[in-house]
Q: What sequence folds into this?
């Protein structure tokens, strides 16, 4: 009970920090606190593999990527939010958000139906890892590789967006 309360306090404090801090580096570090709190919850539930993945992948790699992008783009400078660089951006974001919400609702409904049916797990000590490997590298290999391509495109787009155009007199 004590671990749950302390880990929940970590998660909530980190989440509030992500929202409240105006400095993006401080907000990213608050995100690390949130992710570590979630890892503590995983350990308390006996999901040690998920806790390790949470710390290594999310708290480590993803937050470092966020910090890299923050430093690369220099978002600590104030931008004029009234100037819209891409006029289609906000309506497109609304359409994508509605589509993602629909997909999330469909996934929750499908998962609920499967949980009602009940899918027994294989017996054995490492059956979950075998199922995870089977799902990632056989059933969902295309989606897994597509996600890696999206991440590479996102980093390349970030680099392109952060480049400063040379003026005529700069040489």
A:
């Amino acid at each position: 009970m004590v671990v749950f309360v302390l880990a929940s306090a970590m998660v909530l404090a980190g989440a509030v920090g992500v929202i409240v801090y105006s400095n993006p580096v401080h907000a990213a570090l608050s995100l690390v606190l949130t992710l570590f709190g979630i890892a503590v919850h995983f350990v308390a539930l006996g999901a040690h593999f998920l806790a390790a993945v949470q710390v290594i992948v999310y708290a480590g790699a993803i937050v470092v990527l966020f910090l890299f992008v923050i430093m690369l783009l220099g978002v600590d400078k104030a931008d004029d939010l009234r100037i819209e660089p891409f006029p289609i951006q906000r309506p497109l974001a609304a359409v994508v958000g509605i589509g993602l919400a629909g997909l999330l609702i469909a996934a929750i409904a499908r998962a609920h139906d499967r949980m009602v049916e009940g899918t027994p797990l294989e017996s054995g000590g490492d059956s979950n890892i075998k199922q995870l490997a089977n799902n990632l590298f056989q059933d969902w290999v295309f989606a897994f590789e597509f996600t890696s391509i999206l991440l590479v495109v996102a980093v390349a787009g970030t680099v392109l967006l952060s480049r400063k155009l040379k003026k005529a007199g700069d040489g």
